[in-house]
Amino acid sequence: MCCFQTGPSRSYSLVNSQNECGAYLIAVFRGPVAGAGSSYIHENLRPGQELWISAPRNNFPLAEVAQHHVFIAGGIGVTPFCSMIARLNELGRSWKLFYCVRTRRKAAFINVLTELASHGDGEVVYTFDGEPGGQMLDSAAAVAAEGPNTHFYCCGPNGMLTVYRVACASLATERVHLEYFTSMCQRRPAADSW
To answer: Model's pTM, two decimal places?
Structure first.
């Protein structure tokens, strides 16, 4: 969590592998509707500037014992999945990432994801619904296509999380994981309170 001396306090997912020591890599989307923390970072912070940060906290853990993992990312919601996928590659576990973005130009980490897929037992499926012929991901079909030992993860905008929760409604709650675009200071609803 970044705690700015003069700005707001916000939480960001770490993108880099847990084995990389000495630096935390985060990705902060800058858009017309970005939050106050995102705007502050882009408008005020400069290379070399020091920040107050807390120790990392994991409120979106990876179920490392699962045989297969399916990730559904909406836009910058892909950030927590980069480090999770790197960990799955280390463990030799299989995974699939559905990366939903309006256009390829707006997709972050394409090169990183391509490299992760080439070094593990994983696959990235892109959905660019803002491009000609593009369609939104059918979350229900994506979930239904997987076996009983699969764990599912979603991080993205609220609309995507609502569709995801419906798609996973019949699954055991321990197999369903989600991350909200909110500050760590705000309490997230428990999985069983959907």
So the answer is: 0.83
